[in-house]
Amino acid sequence: MKLKIRLLYLVSACLLLPAARAQLRVTTTTTDLAALVREIGGEHVEVVSLSRPLQDAHYLDATPGMVVRIGRSDLFVENGFELEMGWVPEVIRETRNRSVRPGGDGHVDASHGIQAIQIPERTHRDMGDVHPSGNPHYTLEPVVAQQAARNIAAGLIRVDEKNADTYKSNLDAYIARSDEVVAKWKEKFAPHANTGVIIYHKHFDYMLKSLGLNIVDAVEPLPGIAPSARHVAQLISTYDTDSVRMVIIEPWHDLRVGKQVADAIGVPLLVLCPTVGSCDGTDDVIALFETNARKILDVLEAEAGE
Amino acid sequence: MMMNARYRFLRGLSPFFGACAVLPGNPASAQGPGGMPLNFGAAADMVFSAPTRDLEESEFDVRAFEINIGAPVDPYFDFLATLAWEDDEAELEEAWVSTVLPWNLKLKFGREFLPFGNLNPIHEHDYPQVNAPSVHEAFTSDGAMIGDGAHLEYLAPYLNPTLTLIVGVYDEVHGSVGRRIDGFPLLARAQSFYQSPLGEHALMAGASFLTSAGSRDPMEDRLDADGFTSDDRARGKLDYLFGLDLKYKYSPGITTYQGLVLGAEYLYASYDAYKNHADFTPGLQVDADSGFYVYAEWNFDRFRGVGYRYDRTDVLFSSLEGGAGMEGHTLYKQWRPTEFSRLRLQYQFADNDLEDETEHTVMLQATFFIGWHPPHRF
Fold it and tell me: Is residue B135 part of a domain?
């Protein structure tokens, strides 16, 4: 008798489950994309990122947890431009949810239609870890990320047409806000146009270019390749405080090497926030952009004030 | 005969080499016939080994050269094949198709590395150390157990921890105790994965079981006319093989690359000693051996890591050898200049009761990947 009652509860719970879940389940590969989904989906979505804020999405292991997570999702959003090619194909192959596979209604390649920078003319491994489709870190610049937001909105509408008006209006609001914010910071950076900076990895390039800064060199001799002593020495002997104003690095790289280069040139080492959620006050891609822009501007203005 | 086999092997691959050669762009994929994407890659695993006791026995070995081909067949099926060149022989190591079924099920059929434990499902060049732990060398042989058949995988809808149940049936399994198991070998495995809420700790634990439904081939054809063989593994047939495995990763929140990896595996083999064998004596017909390894690895960053492994095992059919065992201590350091190349320096101290001697061996391994390589799992 008890068993029958328990079974009855179980069946009832299963039947009630779809009705109880009003929100769409969305899984993204990065926290930046999760923030964009929240921006467009608002209260209609429950979003989870497969990577943590301080994880480099190039290098993750495919785990059974990821497979279950996207298997339970209505929508799966990936960055594209080969950022996650080391692990997402395995997760997609293992998932039981056909709709989140490429070509399915529940799959979004957020890079679709984005005009990438740094598309190599040819791709060979002797050029380092280059991405054939171009630089994948477009979410660091909110205006460039508008196309990703459009792709996400289209995906949300595909799987949840009844809230299409909300998604469209949230998209319009994001586009207007990002245009306004980026224009504001471009204006602030206008006096510093063409200021030279050295980067560690090609992570912030969309943002730096948008702000009119000049990326003169990188600590990595080639993308993804550890700097050699010779390359570091070459950087130090080539640049001075006139040609470079700062060295920019992500927190997951070797800060000692970045500091060695910065100290030898005589400029500050600036650790920027690489992803949404990696620093305080970086809850969305616009806040991330503003936080990083503020950090750079503070250095430039402090130097100008000396 | 061998030349013909090699020629056919290479000739069969020529369209794939051609496809890659003419198409620049993503080095990890090429366009196959009909313009459809085809993932194509190769791996080379080279090992220099020097026993310090007798340096003249040092050897340099191109341990394996592999070609990997994989792609979705259509919206319903995925395909992957690995052709390996080992010990001057070309071999089809893997060729399987997988498909998703209702009720969270997945079917994989063809030739595959048996989903048994931590190490068996992965290729030798991806092992955490240069060589396999002695328990694997003793019980599974030839690197891994490979089966022709199918397995069904159920992924329970639990998020954290997950639960995966696997049942497999095979026509035969190569490279296991007794070298080959016929008579529809059966496999069962349960595994669970847990990740802490902030993702810093991740743990995978599993239990595997392999047996045979029918008669097993004790490799009679490998015995000489007097019933002798130099291969211990032909002296009996497997009753069952049981394994427990564990893998833990800790990665501090501030960094992607730094972290600790712990791995362990325990194997228990129950077998019938081969009754026609000269060493067979009444009372030894049924016996069992066991062994385990445990290792810890610390990665300083994306490029460098160090580790230590301890392993201990009975030699297979140890009852015929007076309960002999093997014990080993292994230290290693690895460098990964990029995702596609890796160097490893390893020192191993091994104590073998059977031969009543200790061995000190220094090994240097270089592994290279070009083009596509199947993504790595946890």
Answer: yes
| Chains A & B: contacts with CB separation below 8 Å | 112
Residue B354 lies in a domain: yes
pLDDT above 90 covers a percentage of chain A that reads: 78
For residue B258, the model assigns a pLDDT of: 85
> pLDDT digits over B56-75, tens only?
889 999 998 999 999 889 88
User: Which of A17, A56, A68 to mutate: most B Cβ within 10 Å?
Assistant: A68
Q: Do B75 and A101 touch (CB under 8 A)?
A: yes
Please name the amino acid found at residue A83: L
Which residues of chain B are within 8 Å of residue A62 when distances are taken between CB atoms?
375-378
Residue B93: inside a domain, yes or no? no
pLDDT of A115 > 80? The answer is yes
State pLDDT tens for residues A69-101: 999 999 999 999 999 988 999 999 999 999 999
- Contact at CB, A65 and B106, closer than 8 angstroms: no
Phi and psi, residue B22, nearest 5°: -90, -10
Q: Is B98 in contact with A124 (Cβ distance < 8 A)?
A: no
CB-CB: which of A101, A103, A224 is closest to B338? A224
Number of domains in chain B: 1
**Whether A68 and B157 lie within 8 Å, measured CB to CB:** yes
Mean pLDDT, chain B, whole residue set: 80
Say what the ipTM of the complex is: 0.83
The answer to whether the CB of B313 falls within 8 A of the CB of B326 is: yes
CATH code for the domain of B206: 2.40.160.10
- When scoring B68, B257, B377 by the number of chain A Cβ atoms within 10 A, the one with the most, hence best to mutate, is B377
Ordered structural domains, chain A, with CATH: 20-181 (3.40.50.1980), 185-305 (3.40.50.1980)
pLDDT tops 90 at residue A305: no
Per residue in B11-20, pLDDT tens? 334 333 333 3
Q: Is residue B248 part of a domain?
A: yes
- Element holding B348 (H helix, E strand): strand B341-352
Write out chain A residues lying below 8 Å of B255, CB-based. 54, 251-252
Could you give the percent of chain B with pLDDT greater than 90?
49
DSSP letters for chain A? -HHHHHHHHHHHHHHHHHHH--SEEEEESSHHHHHHHHHHHGGGEEEEESS-TTS-TTS--B-HHHHHHHHT-SEEEE--TTTTTTTHHHHHHH-S-GGGSTTSTTEEETTTT---S---SS--GGG-S--TT----GGGSTTTTHHHHHHHHHHHHHH-GGGHHHHHHHHHHHHHHHHHHHHHHHHHHGGGTT-EEEESSTTSHHHHHHTT-EEEEESSSSTTPPPPHHHHHHHHHH--TTT-SEEEE-TTS-HHHHHHHHHHHT--EEE---STTSSTT-SSHHHHHHHHHHHHHHHHHHHHH-
Q: How far apart are CA A170 and CA A161, in angstroms?
A: 14
Q: Which domain holds residue B288?
A: 100-371
Could you say which of A52, A101, A252 has the minimum Cβ distance to residue B199? A52
